[in-house]
Design goal:
This protein is an alpha+beta fold. The protein has eight helices and twelve strands.
Length: 277
């Protein structure tokens, strides 16, 4: 991930703006916490579940649980189409005159946006022609993946880079073309926090998904759920309820996980595919 310690051109949004969405004061109510740990996974989602293989009697260690958590977080990123941990991306977007006149509207695929690290015009051979000043970039709709450039500050002197003279002929094409492919280049960071904390609702989804993966491993290892023994007219039967119980808990977690994913997709505007034309 990028080093922001000495960055002058990165437009950041604080964590309270990505969750709760657009909040300016989250109060004292706890909504954000560190990433789920193995101990917290057991406490919240696996309490009372014997963490041992019913087939081999091997214990399920904290390292195993940590692996389930990482796998679950990756599944959540795909299912909800959101970045859980911060990730830096680079994307090239077309120039569209109708969007340009709407304060240079840009739609970025990875959400929520934590920072715009660089926004400008770059040629196909990597020559930077223009770089938009950070204080022109509006952060209001970062949670939705939407970016607008609002040049209300006197930053014209910083807008033109030393290569602007070479780019003059390139820019004049705007007057003749309403659309140009791969015109804007955006380097940005998406995710939920720079300080290793995420919304608790993400941990709720990750914990349920990790538990589902664990139950999927344990349930098939039960060799039988009931057996009977008869000797000289005396019989004994025993039923092991663990497989059915694990399956019930797993099915409940699947429904709850799907509900959280659906709500997250609605909250972060990921219920439909939107692209620039």
């Amino acid at each position: 991930m990028a080093d922001y310690s000495n960055s002058d051109n990165s437009t950041k949004v604080n964590n309270a703006s990505t969750y709760p969405v657009k909040a300016i004061d989250a109060g004292s109510f706890k909504r954000i916490e560190p990433m789920l740990t193995a101990e917290l996974l057991v406490s919240r989602f696996l309490k009372g579940i014997p963490l041992i293989s019913p087939l081999t009697q091997e214990p399920i260690t904290n390292e195993d649980l940590a692996d389930f958590i990482i796998r679950a977080a990756n599944s959540l990123e795909v299912d909800a189409n959101l970045s859980v941990a911060p990730v830096q991306s680079k994307i090239r977007l077309p120039f569209a005159m109708d969007l340009y006149t709407e304060f240079m509207y840009l739609e970025l695929p990875n959400k929520p946006i934590l920072s715009i690290d660089r926004l400008g015009i770059v040629t196909s051979n990597g020559i930077s022609i223009y770089q938009v000043p950070a204080d022109w970039i509006d952060t209001a709709n970062f949670a939705d993946g939407r970016v607008n450039v609002i040049p209300l500050s006197p930053a014209l002197g910083t807008f033109v880079t030393p290569s602007a003279q070479a780019g003059g002929a390139f820019l004049v094409l705007i007057g003749y073309r309403s659309n140009m492919p791969a015109y804007w280049e955006v380097q940005y960071t998406s995710g939920f926090s720079f300080d290793s904390k995420i919304p608790m609702i993400l941990n709720e989804a990750i914990g349920r998904k990790a538990a589902i993966l664990l139950f999927n491993l344990l349930i098939p290892q039960f060799q039988f759920s009931s057996f009977s023994l008869g000797l000289d007219g005396v019989s004994q039967s025993q039923t092991i309820a663990a497989p059915q119980l694990y399956a019930m808990i797993r099915d409940l977690y699947i429904k709850e996980y799907d509900d959280i994913v659906t709500n997250l997709k609605h909250k972060y505007n990921q219920t439909m595919i939107v692209g620039m034309i």
